[in-house]
Design a protein that fits this description.
The chain has about 150 residues and is α+β, with helices and mostly antiparallel strands. The chain contains 4 helices and 3 strands.
Length: about 150
């Protein structure tokens, strides 16, 4: 007599295709191309890049400048004002740098539009400082964007 064979082998682990409630495995909440899946840091970086692209059309020499986003500025003893950005001129082996500090900018802005405007103003001010020009000569619309509502 032959014994009935079982299709289940207890020595081989089962691949789980459904959860214990009979539903399928959960996937991501939103696909990667949807803005919901972008972090606040990524969104902020995109605002800085948009501002830089806007300025590079007018000032091609900005292609040699390195633009950075940092969370917070380094601590400075005796300073009560927290900077929103900073710039460093080019040295022998280092390119010129413009830094925008994400957290201070986010704290000072309430909406995405306000944040985009503030980021652009910080970038314009730092580029102007780097080039030795006034912010109005770097971007003629500097300071006027908030009145267009």
């Amino acid at each position: 007599m032959t014994e009935p064979t079982s299709s289940k082998d207890s020595s081989v682990p089962r691949v789980r295709r459904r959860d214990r409630h009979g539903r399928g495995m959960r996937g991501p909440v939103a696909p990667p191309q949807v803005p919901l899946s972008a972090s606040r840091a990524d969104t902020f970086r995109d605002l800085v890049l948009d501002s830089v692209e806007r300025l590079e059309r007018r000032w091609p020499q900005l292609a040699d400048v390195e633009f950075l986003v940092m969370e917070v500025p380094p601590p400075v003893t005796g300073e009560s004002i927290v900077p929103l950005g900073g710039s460093t001129p080019a040295e022998k082996s280092e390119p010129a740098r413009v830094v925008v500090y994400r957290r201070p900018v986010e704290i000072r802005s309430k909406s995405r539009d306000e944040r985009a405007l503030l980021v652009h103003e910080v970038v314009v001010e730092q580029v102007a400082d780097l080039l030795g020009l006034s912010p109005e000569s770097v971007d003629p619309r500097y300071g006027q964007d908030d009145e267009q509502d």
